[in-house]
UniProtKB/TrEMBL annotation:
Residue stretches of biased makeup (Low complexity): 35-49
Name of protein: ER membrane protein complex subunit 4
Assigned protein family: Belongs to the EMC4 family.
Recorded superkingdom: Eukaryota
The UniProt record lists the keyword Membrane: yes
Subcellular location: Endoplasmic reticulum membrane
A Pfam family reported for this protein in Swiss-Prot or TrEMBL: EMC4
Transmembrane domains' residue ranges: 80-103, 124-143
Keyword Transferase among UniProt keywords: no
Predominant localisation class: endoplasmic reticulum
InterPro entries noted in UniProt: TMEM85/Emc4 (IPR009445)
Location of region: Disordered: 30-49
Membrane topology designation: Multi-pass membrane protein
Length: 177
């Protein structure tokens, strides 16, 4: 038993070169021993504050035009999706048409939150282009619905709402004796 305790004490007291003892040292002494990681500078002059840097106006204008033209850039992809989904009435084309409607309508509802960060003299024009682009996407969705036969565009689609005419004369067959 005593040899086991002796072995445990030797293991506990033996220090390896990579071991760090966290007992009985003040934090300032430990930080003086450890070197700084690569790329770290202790000089306070190298601290960079992003808010002190002036914002580049041309970058803001470029970003705002990218946001404004985003619906126009989606039109070719929407056309490809419309072509690939076909005109049959099944789950895949219905889901595609639903997304063709849903995305631009959500974008039109959230137009002010989209352009909240953008200010300037061109923001009205950018909002107008964004609005027109989303309206074009809605028009594409309506065209797809019409080509699938989902829109009531023929007179035969409205037959349920037409009242049947009142009969003036009645005729009946007779029995010959």
């Amino acid at each position: 038993m005593s040899s086991g305790n002796q072995l445990n004490r030797n293991v506990l007291t033996k220090r390896h070169k990579w071991a760090i003892s966290f007992s009985n040292k003040v934090k300032s002494e430990r930080s003086a021993e450890l070197s700084s990681p690569p790329g770290y500078s202790c000089q306070s002059s190298s601290i960079h504050i992003d808010s002190s840097r002036p914002t580049d106006h041309s970058l803001i204008v470029k970003k705002s035009w990218d946001i404004a033209l985003a619906p126009m850039k989606q039109i070719p992809m929407n056309l490809f999706i419309m072509y690939m989904s076909g005109n049959s009435i099944s789950i895949f084309p219905i889901m595609m048409v639903g997304m063709l409607f849903l995305r631009p309508i959500k974008a039109l509802i959230q137009i002010n939150t989209t352009f909240k960060m953008i200010e300037g003299n061109q923001s009205i024009l950018q909002k107008l282009i964004y609005f027109v682009g989303n309206l074009l996407c809605v028009a594409l969705a309506l065209y797809k619905c019409q080509s699938m036969g989902l829109l009531p565009s023929h007179a035969s689609d409205w037959l349920d709402f037409i009242e049947s005419p009142q009969r003036i004369e009645f005729s009946g067959g007779g029995i010959a004796f």
